[in-house]
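User: Let's play a game. I give you a shape written as tokens, and you guess the letters that built it. Ready? Here's round one.
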């Protein structure tokens, strides 16, 4: 499995992405190589068949999640990253062009994702995994993904599944620690602070010490 981190590829792609020029209505939008690479990397690392590998997804460092990225790169850069991801997603949805969301709606959706991410520390990988599963119809009919509200409603279903996976993982970890029991100390017991004071040498600062 590749050691390339999807977040590195996303940042690099977003850094070279500029605002799209006004397109002629007859021009066909094509998916970018960058997003194809990003999507494939995420799928390889966090999706197995129909299952999401939440144990790995929830292990993404907090600093590499959306709130952390906003602190590191700034809100504009993170918004550009999300907008790039959402544009590619909107293009790949098999819907008539007139039903697809406009750049303005996608920009608003990117802002909403930034706000939502702060509630449970979503990562860009979370967003891509959610869109991947949503496109597969896991959270509802793909025909309904034509407004920002419809997508945020589907995202809420993903977040609930993610939260349940987190609670289950936490319970399993606590059960494992309980089964293992207390670990026998290999070092001496720590000295209490009061004992350190009792063992200390009291020096009379008014009396000069010889030597």
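Assistant: Ready! My guess for every position:
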């Amino acid at each position: 499995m590749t050691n390339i981190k999807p977040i590195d590829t996303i940042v690099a792609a977003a850094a070279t992405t500029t605002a799209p020029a006004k397109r002629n209505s007859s021009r066909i939008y094509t998916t970018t190589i960058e997003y194809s690479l990003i999507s494939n990397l995420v799928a390889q690392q966090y999706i197995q068949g129909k299952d999401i590998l939440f144990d790995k997804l929830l292990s993404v460092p907090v600093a590499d999640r959306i709130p952390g990225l906003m602190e590191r790169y700034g809100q504009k850069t993170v918004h550009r990253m999300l907008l790039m991801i959402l544009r590619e997603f909107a293009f790949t949805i098999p819907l008539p062009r007139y039903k697809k969301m406009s750049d303005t709606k996608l920009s608003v959706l990117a802002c909403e994702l930034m706000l939502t991410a702060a509630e449970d520390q979503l990562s860009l990988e979370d967003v891509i995994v959610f869109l991947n599963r949503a496109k597969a119809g896991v959270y509802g009919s793909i025909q309904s993904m034509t407004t920002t509200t419809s997508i945020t409603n589907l995202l809420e279903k993903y977040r609930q599944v993610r939260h349940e996976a987190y609670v289950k993982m936490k319970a399993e970890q606590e059960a494992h620690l309980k089964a293992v029991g207390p670990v026998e100390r290999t070092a001496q017991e720590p000295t209490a602070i009061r004992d350190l004071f009792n063992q200390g040498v009291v020096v009379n600062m008014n009396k000069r010490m010889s030597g």
